[in-house]
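lol forgot to send this yesterday, sorry. struct tokens for the thing we talked abt
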């Protein structure tokens, strides 16, 4: 899964989320990409997306969710939050993806096909902020922070970034030099807590539903053939370079 969102200074969100699996990997376990993603597509980002469209690129099939000017509070899950606090955005949260979180049995974990799947499964998350990234535990490039969540890890995500562009910062500094502290307090220049976007549980739900689809497909194939499913290449969610 590939998520790339831009957090705007007016507390709206632009960007896209792609949820997809590799066609050949789905075929290897006797399923179609649509079967593997059926639950994930039904219960993920569709309600809040501006557009939802089929995705089929580079041998991957799935769904693209597009967001244009979506309000922050349209993102309403519970484990990760992006909060506007004055002139900063604060990111705090977790994306737990341990075997317990994914509801995998010891037998499934020991299966070679499952082990290969865990090695290749990927969730890429990128947030671009209006201004400078002050600190984060992800990879920072300009105003963008990227995290690569890993199966088997708790995956904590933190960041602090300016909600103001460079021009807005310069204008604010100029205004501060002219206005008195009392005037700034009276007008509430810096603002207050404006909004929260919560998305982490939605990502975890999609991951869990994809695994459930893969498990169901493998079970159907085993029932049809009367044999154990051989190790196969894992379904690899689309990385940033495929979105």
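and heres what i got for the seq, position by position
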């Amino acid at each position: 899964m590939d998520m790339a969102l831009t957090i705007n200074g007016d507390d709206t969100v632009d960007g896209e989320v792609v949820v997809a699996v590799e066609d050949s990997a789905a075929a290897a376990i006797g399923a179609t990409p649509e079967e593997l993603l059926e639950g994930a597509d039904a219960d993920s980002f569709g309600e809040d997306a501006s557009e939802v469209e089929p995705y089929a690129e580079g041998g991957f099939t799935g769904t693209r969710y597009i967001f244009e000017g979506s309000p922050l509070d349209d993102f309403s899950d519970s484990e990760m939050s992006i909060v506007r606090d004055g002139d900063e955005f604060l990111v705090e949260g977790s994306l737990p993806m341990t075997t317990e979180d994914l509801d995998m049995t010891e037998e499934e974990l020991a299966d070679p096909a499952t082990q290969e799947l865990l090695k290749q499964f990927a969730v890429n998350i990128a947030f671009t902020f209006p201004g400078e990234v002050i600190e984060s535990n992800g990879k920072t490039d300009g105003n963008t922070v990227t995290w690569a969540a890993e199966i088997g890890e708790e995956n904590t995500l933190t960041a602090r970034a300016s909600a103001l562009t460079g021009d807005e910062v310069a204008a604010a500094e100029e205004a501060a030099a002219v206005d008195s502290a009392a005037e700034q307090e009276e007008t509430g220049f810096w603002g207050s807590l404006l909004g929260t976007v919560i998305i982490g549980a939605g990502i975890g739900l999609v991951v869990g539903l994809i695994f459930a689809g893969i498990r169901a497909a493998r079970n159907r194939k085993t029932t049809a053939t009367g044999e154990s499913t051989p190790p196969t290449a894992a379904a690899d969610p689309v990385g940033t370079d495929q979105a």
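Confidence is low (pLDDT under 50) at residues 189-198, 238-243. anyway ping me if u want another try
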